[in-house]
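Hi, here's the filled form for the chain we discussed.

Project: internal
Contact: R.S.
Residues: 398
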Amino acid sequence: MSRHITAAEFVDALRVHGVQNVTGVPCGHLAGPWALFDRAGELTPAASEGTALAIAAGWELGGRMSAVLCQNSGLGNLLNPLASLLLPYRIPVLIIMTMRGWPDPGDDEPQHAAMGTSTTGMLEALDVPYAFLAPEKLQEALVHAADARAQGRPFFLLVPRESIGKAAEAPSAGVPPVGERLTRARVVSALMTQLTDELLVTTTGSLSRQAHHERDRPGTFYMQGSMGHASAIGTGLAMAHPDRGTVILDGDGAFLMHLGTGSTIGASGARNLVHIIVDNGCYESTGCQASTSRCLDWPSLGHGLGYRSVVTCDSEPGLAGNLRTALTAEGPVLLVLTVVPTPDEVHPRASASRSLSDIAERFRAVATQTTTSAGTDPTAAMETRARPALRGGGRSSP
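And the returned structure, exactly as it came back:
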């Protein structure tokens, strides 16, 4: 008996089941099916799991059977449309969800523990049917999904980690040389060099890992989990300490997951806030599945959301200057750095050296200090930050 189902077998079974369209948010343990559906033109990436479920509901209302691919860390995003859309309107959608933090939370990263032990309980509380995927019981699970569909009910197929194999590699033209183009390592290293006493919030995934690798500092809050919420955390910090510089280090996929927070940032008028987006055009930590950032006009978006200034950069020569521009301008500032993905450069998470609660306590101790760690006067620091953004160079838009 095989330890896992091949990606092709799994996708073929879903098609026989009747699935015509697929949406979702990438998970590394569903990378195989994701790639195959994507290559066939049957996949629509969604910014969040809740959005994916609503897209699937639209397909179903239009007469097309659909499925959602995601992991259980995104179940929280799913709950609202599940409870207030699918269930009362009796819209059947198949949700294929990988199980992080299950069956033993100790075998996974700490941010997955709570959801891993609660997923099935939440589904049972909502009276939503589900089944666990096993290699020899895929067809049986899909029969249960068909029964739920006949009753107008959604169905969750819960996928233990490493249950489904990878897809064969697609032909590639190869990775072009980096040259003077930016990479995650280059931009994070340059940022950490310029930071003094600013509070820094790093988004979940590779950026948090990179920041910890480049320079571990008590004034950095390393997020693990809570995808898309680094910008909100940073906004709260900036408003709590308006005399203290606050920097958010975010990714394109994470920012897009809760894009509305950008409007809150603009409306807050936080003069001490710098929001840095590292745009690699993909979800790097789950397999470089494409995000939708390629469709964005970042300057127009940033100004439309209400950021006071927007700075963009995509090459090494302008990096240091654009960082200085952003860090000394009156906020809220949006700095977008377009980088080349480097998925093979992986560093340990911050939680490999200290617990998440220790990270929070260490950060809180720094964040609640009334003076800056560098011994500078907070008022003087604020006056420096309030200087107008540098003009010229063609990359900064006030």
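Let me know if anything looks off before we file it.
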